[in-house]
Each structure stands twice: as C-alpha cells, then as structure tokens.
Amino acid sequence: MLLQSYPELRTRNRDVIAEGLRSSGYGTRIELPSGGSPDQFTVRKADFEDIGLSFVRYDFPITIAVNPRDDILIGFQIRKVSEVAIDGEVMQNTVSDAGCLVPEQRPWTVHSPAGYEVLILRVAGESLRRKTSALMGADRGRLDLRPPSAAAADRVLRDVTLNFARELDAVDPIFLPALVAHSTEDICVRILRSLSEQVLEAERAPAAPSAVQLGQVEQYLVANYARPLTVENLAAVSGVSACSVFRHFRARYDCTPHQYLEKIRLEMAYAGLMSCRDLSSVGAIALSCGFHSRRSFEQAFLKRFGERPTAMLVERPRRRRR
Length: 322
Description:
Order of helices and strands: EHEEEEEEEEEEHHHHHHHHHHH
Low-confidence stretches: 318-322
Oligomer: single chain
CATH class of the domain at 8-125: Mainly Beta
Structural class: alpha+beta
Mean pLDDT: 84
Distance between the termini: 50 Å
Helix content: 40-55%
Number of helices: 12
CATH superfamily of the domain at 8-125: Jelly Rolls
Strand order of the largest sheet: 1-3-4-11-6-9
C-alpha cells in the first residue's frame, strides 16, 4: 500500500466515489454498478504545486471517461489490469508496463472489468513546457510526448515514481519541501528525456558551450550548493541549452552537474560535522547542505568517505583522547 501517511478516503457512496476520482485527476463521466457500490473505493492523495501522486483502489467493475485537461497523467498499475482507450484506441496497460500516459488536451476512457489498483502521477503541463524549453534552449509552446514503452529508460520512470511515493511515507517533515523539489525535477526530466522526441533529438548533438559558459555553471554550483538544481537554472546561468550543459560538462569535469553538486554538498557537510558534537544535528546539516533526505545523505556520505556521519561524530572524540 502506498501513501499510507496521507489522508485516506474510503467509501461505498457512489457520489463520493465519483468526486474522489475527479479530485485525483480523473474526469466527468463515471460508470459504477447500479445501486449502492458493492465494494469500498479507496484513494490517498499527496498533492503539490507542480506534481502530485494519487493511490486509487477499487475492487469492482468501473468505467471512467475523462475530459481534456492541462496536466499530464501517467498511471502505473499496481495489481489489477485496466483497459485504457485514448481517442478510442486501446492502450496496453499491465502491471509490468512502464505506465500509461494520458496526454494533455486529449479525451480518454479507462474500463476496469475487475477493479484496479493504480498509482497516478500528475505533472503540471506548464512545468514540463518550461523544462522542455530549458533543455532545448528555445521556447516550446507545444508539448508532444509518446506513450511509455517497455524500454529500460521508461521503466526507470516507473521505479522513480514508486520510490517517490515510498519516500513520502518515510520522510522527516523537515525534509519534505526538499524531497518534493528534488523528485519534481527528477521525474520531469526523466519524462522529457524518455518520452519527448524533441528533447531526445536535442540531446543527440547539442551545440558546445564555451569554457566561460561552463565555468559560469561551476561558479553557480559552488555559490548555490544548498539550493535545488533545475534545468532552468542551468540554461539561465550558462546561456545555452541544459542538454548542451549536460553533454559538455561531463566531457570537461568527468561528471554531471548534479554529481559535481553532490561533491560540493558532501564537502560542506563534512566541514559542518567536523565542528559538530551533537548526533541530533546530522539531519539539520544534511538539510542545510541541500540533501532531500537523511537517508540519501548518509548513503552518499558513506560512499564518499567510507563511514557514516554518526560514526564520524562518535569516533572523533575517541581518536582525540588517544
């Protein structure tokens, strides 16, 4: 079960079920069995400005018709299999698929003859358009996405989305804004780099930025290590497309901008721990250095320095006494 820490709507009332589906991103016409619903409908929602997740479960036949909307929806089947039709064309949509994309501004229906269990990812269309323009280095008013495939890159999007849902259940509340910002960027970029032919084409041969432009990116990362890094930042700071920065930053620095940023964050966290004596401060240091969870910080710290942050704090006084 996903999003267990978020408010749950559980009901057999047909009107409440219909309203719950509409509030989760679904649309206008909802067909349920006649009379009272014979089974409970369950929905949990974690909704944020540019992204949202809804976990929906219903164990009885249901058909939903959805009007066009501005948001992008991708449904990831968890247990049951639904028959999804977009513009009348039935789409493959099983628990082993990478997800079912519902493009913006297109009507669609979903028929679940035996009920279903699904995690619905909502991404604001305007947010994706901004990131498309940043990745390509030019304004793009239209957003064209192809349906996910069985390719490994598309399956990664499913894994990242499911992991985001699990992290939302486990995250310390002080890390929630950082986790949402990190996951919004990660998921949006993964959608564009796997489902957008425009972005894929732009990544194949981006124009090379100058050494000065790459240096500007490096300076920005050092000065803003605690802030979330977005493709919009990279494009604005460098003056070229984010695709160009990704390709040529690796060639010059042997890492991506995000990997370079993590190195800076770890060095700053190490310095902070060297002047710290309180184990309870580890989370605060991780947050102040830009990490989106204590767990991700501890894993990165262990990989970089060979010990956990807490172990470093415990062992340092012992080493001084020897």
